[in-house]
Specification:
heterodimer; A: 114 residues; mainly beta; 4-stranded antiparallel β-sheet; B: 113 residues; 6-stranded mixed β-sheet; globular
Amino acid sequence: EAGVTQFPSHSVIEKGQTVTLRCDPISGHDNLYWYRRVMGKEIKFLLHFVKESKQDESGMPNNRFLAERTGGTYSTLKVQPAELEDSGVYFCASSSRDRAHEQYFGPGTRLTVT
Amino acid sequence: AQSVTQLGSHVSVSEGALVLLRCNYSSSVPPYLFWYVQYPNQGLQLLLKYTTGATLVKGINGFEAEFKKSETSFHLTKPSAHMSDAAEYFCAVSLGGADGLTFGKGTHLIIQP
């Protein structure tokens, strides 16, 4: 069974540009989460999808961040326009409906905004 | 609101020595507790979890943790450290179910030969 995959693994963009991160959860997992770790700080929750619906987006920093999960499969997280403080590692995780508390994480996307 | 405190951003132990990584939490309701490990250039891997029932939980790679409600702690231990245990370890708490996780800042475990 394939794990959670994320693309790209690294992205370097200039301030003001747009970046889109992609997450493919484990097949059949209804729950999908985005987290972010800014350097030197803890991993922070951004939002949670149940299938294609946003269940909790309380951790989204501001309206420059837009997450989608069309069709309830893969998800994208778009940052537009990117700011320096958006640099960090963005993790995606997924869990099944039956064992919702067991989240499986992807390897993360390291975003650097210069 | 929940929070997690991991004592020590770096912990160094000798190979074969006891590993003890500390985690204290605060939660308004009985928490679900987790330890994750991140090896270099990899994602987070679930080591072990406490949901309900037995307070001593065993995980992968010989690690275990004990939930102590009176101390609001969930410390991670391993009797004998191995070089392959060198990684960053994260303690996390949730309200249960499908809720998002609240993480501590992480602890780098360094194994001295």
